[in-house]
Design brief:
The protein is mainly α. Helix 5 (about 110-115) crosses helix 16 (about 340-370) and helix 5 packs across helix 17 (about 370-380). It has helices at about 1-25, 30-70, 85-100, 100-105, 110-115, 125-140, 140-160, 175-180, 185-220, 225-245, 250-275, 275-290, 295-300, 305-310, 315-335, 340-370, 370-380, 380-390, 395-425, 435-455, 460-470, 475-490.
């Protein structure tokens, strides 16, 4: 009975907060936007340094525990347990949940933005191109994936090695004990986790919808209207709810594998039709420059100039990825039983970072090669930037059609993995949540997305900013998570 009351409390408070935020955003978008922007602006201005050093600590901790600690061979589960999924399937699911739509959305647009408006160098120059790749690597490489890996590792250990519920609050049992983790403190943590997950996914689904619609307009002249976007969301909602209800093995796994196959095809096709030698040269040089400047650039927060730029890009990204850590980390943990910690760090931090680097180099180079004037024009509409770039290359329209399909599959896998996690969070941490819970959260996510897309011009941006601001406490939660990992592993002897 006590568990039911606890569940109802967490679940209903989360729903109430989410609905209240949506109503506020639609009824008074100006006040909501001002509050969200003011809060986030304050955090960026006063705590930009904190975000950078925190994210850097995640990378350092992940490298240490995965490759140099005495714990690296400990398995996520019993020491004789085996992985539930092949490496490819495991990678496909975690990669789709962790990045997905964002990679397609920003793959060409972000490097081109930096190429047009770099820091400290002239736009459109080789130095600007180098800056563009270095910053893209920083924002989408080891830092965000280390962030996911930290929380995922703690959650997986608690689930599979210590048999605790799949809840964010469970991670704190080694620090505060089960009684407090199951009490008020734990409930607050779980409520914030649910809200951050719903808000984060809603904005991603909204951005994905915009890009799918933009791609359809660019390719087939289908208008960018509310009715078209409504149709896209409804169709995809049906797909991902069905996929989620069928479970990890029957639905999510297969879609994630399809994602990787399509993404791999797009990468190979773009490499072949694009400036292949230039791409190879750019990859090698950008990787070298990224490694060379890794610590310095990773700790930059705009202390000496252009703090606004760092706040809009680097700090924003770091805060955004921290806000995503509970959802992505929990999902990765759920599919990682049987892996050693070393295997886990390679699969969660190293492998997806390399995939991100390859994609940004290919898409970014293809765009930058078209010149400064083209870049200035293309980045005016971020959702269509990739399609504009591809239109300049042989078979570009065919690749663009495949990219739209990729957006749909990434959309679906991001949504069904988040739905699965939300269902676990609201089912006492059950690793096999029931279908009705999955359906409910699937509808809530899509409903929130549509409400903000239709009800307010800047609704999605406002919710994104708000979720990042609300998720600021997760920075501290993540720091304590590292302490919790070490404390629980000290009890193991291998």
């Amino acid at each position: 009975m006590s568990e039911k009351k606890q569940f109802n409390y967490t679940f209903f408070i989360s729903i109430i907060i989410t609905i209240a935020v949506v109503i506020w955003g639609i009824a008074s978008p100006s006040t909501f936007e001002n509050m969200a922007n003011t809060t986030f602006g304050f955090l960026v201005d006063k705590f930009g340094w904190f975000y950078t050093i925190t994210m850097m600590s995640f990378v350092g901790f992940a490298v240490w525990i995965g490759f140099f600690s005495k714990y690296k061979n400990i398995r996520l589960g019993e020491q004789n347990s085996k992985p539930e999924y092949s490496f490819l399937t495991w990678f496909a699911m975690l990669f789709s949940a962790g990045m997905g739509i964002g990679l397609v959305f920003w793959g060409a647009a972000e490097p081109m933005n930096y190429f047009v408006a770099p820091l400290g160098v002239e736009s459109g120059t080789p130095e600007a191109a180098r800056f563009a790749m270095q910053k893209s690597f920083l924002h989408w490489g080891f830092h965000p994936w280390a962030n996911y890996a930290i929380f995922a590792l703690a959650s997986a250990l608690m689930q599979f090695r210590y048999n605790k519920p799949c809840l964010v609050s469970s991670v704190f049992i080694p620090l505060i004990g089960e009684e407090k983790a199951n009490g008020t403190i734990g409930k607050i943590i779980d409520i914030f986790s649910i809200f951050a997950t719903v808000a984060g996914i809603a904005t991603s689904l909204g951005l994905g919808t915009y890009q799918i619609n933009s791609g359809l307009k660019f390719l087939f002249n289908i208008p960018e209207t509310t009715s078209v976007q409504l149709s896209i969301v409804i169709i995809i909602t049906i797909i991902y709810i069905v996929s989620t209800v069928t479970g990890l093995d029957n639905g999510i796994k297969h879609l994630a594998n399809i994602n990787v196959y399509i993404f791999t095809f797009v990468i190979i096709a773009c490499f072949l039709v694009g400036p292949s030698i230039k791409i190879l040269d750019t990859f090698i040089e950008s990787a070298g420059y990224y490694i060379q400047t890794f610590i310095g650039s990773g700790l930059e927060a705009g202390a000496f100039f252009n703090k606004k730029w760092y706040g809009s890009w680097t700090i924003f990204y770091f805060a955004w990825f921290i806000a995503w850590a509970p959802f992505v980390g929990t999902f990765i943990a759920r599919i990682s039983k049987g892996r050693t910690i070393k295997e886990f760090i390679i699969g969660v931090m190293i492998a997806p970072s390399l995939a991100s680097f390859i994609w940004f180099v290919i898409a970014g180079t293809m765009g930058i090669e078209q010149g400064l004037e083209f870049a200035k024009e293309a980045i005016k509409s971020t959702p269509t930037t990739l399609f504009s770039v591809l239109s300049n290359y042989t078979f570009g329209n065919i690749i663009s059609i495949i990219c739209v399909c990729l957006l749909v599959t990434f959309f679906v896998t991001s949504a069904n993995s988040s739905t699965f996690v939300l269902a676990m969070f609201s089912s006492y941490g059950d690793l096999h949540p029931k279908g009705p819970k999955k359906i409910l959260w699937g509808i809530v996510q899509s409903g929130l997305t549509l409400a903000l897309m239709i009800g307010s011009v800047n609704g999605l941006h406002m919710l994104q900013t708000a979720s990042i601001a609300v998720a600021f406490p997760f920075s501290f939660i993540m720091i304590f998570t590292m302490v919790s990992i070490v404390k629980m592993l000290k009890k193991d002897s291998v």
